[in-house]
Amino acid sequence: MAALLVGCEQPAWLTDRDPLPALPTWSEPLMGRPIGQAFRLAPERACIGNVEQVEHRYEGAPRPGVRITGWAWDADGKVAPARILVVGPDGRIAGAGATGRPRPDVNEARADITSPTTGWAALAPLRKGRVTVYGVLSDGARVCKLGRLKL
Prior knowledge:
This protein has 151 residues and is mostly beta strands. The protein has one domain (15-150).
């Protein structure tokens, strides 16, 4: 549904005048770093998942931004990646989040996914452009691409 709203005035339930909440503290040293310098890129088969929507837009000064949602699964580690990274159009890490949201629909669709909490939400101080979202794999050194989304 959010994809249909691109370029349109946002409905009140999707946008508010509050500033973007603080990003997770673990992500602070990663902000602004190129994803390829901070992590090794894992092969595509290392994870599965999806970047689904801009769930919320924050328009408040001094820090506007978005909350993006989706789901993720670390196929090698057989767990949901605990950490999620949002990379801006410039290839630099711009946002972060975590898994832990219930996603029973994912379990119903895929028998190989054993966790009921593969859903994730991530915050990024971005308003437009195309973002790429990555899951940090269980080894903590590699990331896998979950998908892209135009804000």
